[in-house]
Structure formats: C-alpha cells, structure tokens
Amino acid sequence: MDAAAFALASVRIVVDFALPPRCPGCGLIVAEEHSFCLDCWSGLVFLGEPCCTRCGLPFEHDGGGEAECGACMADPPRFDRARAAVAYGEIPRKVALKLKYGGRPGVAETMARLMARHLPAGGGGALLAPVPLHRWRIWKRGYNQAALIAAALARGAGMEVVQDLLERTRATPYLRGMGPRERAETVRGAFRVAKRRRAALAGREVILVDDVYTSGATAGACARALKKAGASRVGLLCWARVVRGGDY
Fold first, then answer.
1. What's the pTM value of the predicted model, to 2 decimals?
2. Are 162 and 127 spatial neighbours (Cβ–Cβ below 8 Å)?
3. Residue ranges matching CATH 3.40.50 in the chain
4. Closest by alpha carbon to 94, among 85, 80, 104?
5. What per-residue string of b and e applies to 105-130 under the rule 16 or more CB within 10 Å gives b?
6. DSSP state of 94
7. Considering only the top CATH level, what class is 51-241?
8. For residue range 12-47, what is the model confidence (pLDDT) as tens digits?
C-alpha cells in the first residue's frame, strides 16, 4: 500500500469511527454505507417480474408476453413503461422522507443502487431526466430530490442525465388526498421541455426519475410534454410505488 492509499484508508477509519454508517431506514449503525439493517431490509418488498408491462403493477401469476393490468388496458398511461425498486410501505416511506424533507441528500445514492437493476442494459441510449419541482419549492427545500437520484443513477450506470430537460411551468398543490382524476387535472399542462433542449430530444428515449409513484398523474403529464417535443419513448423509474391503496 503506497502512502496515498494508506492516508486515505486512515482517514476512512477515523471518519467511520466518528460518523459510522447508519441504516437509512431506522438509523441503526451498520457495516457499510447505503446498507440496511436486517429488520429494515426484511421490511422491503422488492418489485419486478411478473408485473404489468406498462405500469409495473405486480401480478400474482405470470401472464406471459406483454400482459397489462386492467387499469392500463382501460386507460393507457402516457408513459410507455414504469418500474419501481420497492413497494411503498413504512420503511420506503421513511427513506423517501429523509431525502425529501430531512436534509439527507446521501440517501439518493442508497435509492439509486436499488433502482439501477431496472435500467436498460448499457443504458440503451436513453436519457435520464428528473421530474422537476417548481422553482419556489426548490428555493424552499434547497434541492430537487428526483434530481439527486437521477445524478446517482447516471454515475452508477454511466448514462447521460439532463437535469433541466423538463420545466414545471406553474406551482401545483400537493396531490396527497386527491383522487386519480383530480390529480391528473391538477398537473395537466404543468410541464414543458426547455427550449434549449428540444433539438437534442428528437427521437430519443427518456427515462423519468422520481421518488414515489402513486397514481402516475405527474409522470403522465411529463410524458405528454416529452412526446409532444419529440421523444420517441418515455419510461419512469422510481424508488417506491403504491401497490394497493395507500396515499402519498
């Protein structure tokens, strides 16, 4: 071990002693950064196949092929594919709130590591783009949590992220407590593609990044704006999604 590596290892030992890694769910000391304690890990429900090919809603049985859920068949969403790392529940909620309101930006890396398995192999030439916040909300919070997650995903996967691809044209109220139809009406027309980004968007696939998927209203409004501006395909990748009931 050379002198530089020895010095770095020594600093790491001191930092870990003073500020040991903690579980992003409960705060218990753990062995490594971005890892969960056993109890919190056991409380995560990982999502994957079999699921609706469009919205990612988990199926109890494999329907084979390109099976869609009843909701997507009855009213197809504007986006082409949505996936989430875990089902929304107590532990995912705590993690999301630590990032969103708790001033814990490092949690974005934790989320991204578990979300990355849903990215296309080699990136597939897709652009990553966070769901934007209105500037007033960014000024109040200090950052956009979706932008932090998107940056972490891009670093890990070697993909291109365009942080300012989408703009929120107006401040919208929190969607919590609204029904699906009211949510959709609230965010209708609330997003647009930045003029300086339109030329680079033509014919490209975009993967939207957000923290939680509830009804898909926000993602649908973003997808509408992206496709109107020339995107060929729009996906959505989230940390957690509501599976049955619940609200956010």
1. 0.88
2. yes
3. 51-241
4. 104
5. bebbbbbbebbeebbeeebeebbbbb
6. H
7. alpha beta
8. 443 344 479 999 999 999 999 999 999 999 999 999
